[in-house]
Design a protein that fits this description.
Blueprint lengths: L2 E3 L4 E9 L6 H10 L10 E4 L4 E7 L6 E2 L2 E9 L7 H8 L4 E7 L5 H16 L10 E6 L9 H8 L6 E3 L8 H19 L10
Parallel strand pairs: 2-6, 2-7, 7-8, 8-9
Antiparallel strand pairs: 1-2, 3-4, 4-6, 5-6
């Protein structure tokens, strides 16, 4: 899980954006990266596939405060949405502290969202993790699309447990930071319960 850097007095937390192909995971990260102060973020790394990119960067959100004198630094990752990159998705999930599940709001993508959510459950089990205990939120992206399904229908299909959810349009930024802030607070609360770890190795 989270690891500590005693020299910089930072607790590092890994947040993974998960969801079906082309749902807006990359767009979310790009929007956050572009609007984060250069002094508070690292470089964005990108691994290109045939249809989309896997992105990573880290940043220090100063608004979240500290845990016993330690600041929280978030490492944001996306996973490739295409099913044939499942091994990459499993690897990226390793050591996750929180999940943003990005759902495509379009009516014709509901089944793809459900399949991706089930895949998330399966891949988390590979690392002895579960959405029952891991902080996570759902983002209903692409709310601006003409074929966007009603939120009630999306909720019935993907969120019967009633986890925190957000409406978004990542292409113009609507709901992007609200989603991240919502999950960040949950991760912060989880980290505060555990306290700063005594020692841990950096995540991959």
């Amino acid at each position: 899980m989270s690891f500590v850097n005693h020299l910089s007095r930072e607790i590092n937390c890994k947040i993974v954006y998960y969801g079906p192909g082309l749902c807006g995971k990359t767009t979310n990260l790009q929007y956050v990266f572009e609007r984060t102060s250069p002094a508070a973020k690292g470089k964005m790394l990108s691994l290109a596939t045939e249809s989309e990119r896997t992105l990573f960067f880290d940043f220090l959100p100063i608004s979240l405060g500290e845990i016993k004198g330690y600041k929280l630094r978030f490492h944001l990752y996306t996973v490739p949405g295409q099913v044939f990159y499942d091994a990459s998705r499993k690897l990226i999930l390793k050591g996750a502290d929180g999940i943003v599940f990005v759902a495509d709001s379009q009516m014709e993508r509901i089944e793809a969202n459900q399949e991706s959510l089930e895949n998330l459950h399966d891949n988390l089990r590979e690392h002895d993790l579960s959405l029952d205990t891991l902080p996570w939120v759902i983002q209903y992206n692409k709310r601006d699309m003409p074929s966007a399904a009603p939120v009630e229908e999306l909720r019935a299909a993907m969120n019967p447990a009633g986890v925190r959810e957000f409406e978004a349009c990542a292409s113009n930024g609507m709901g992007v930071f609200e989603t991240l802030k919502g999950l960040s607070k949950a991760v912060l609360a989880s980290s505060a319960k555990a306290g700063p770890p005594s020692a841990a190795a950096p995540k991959t």
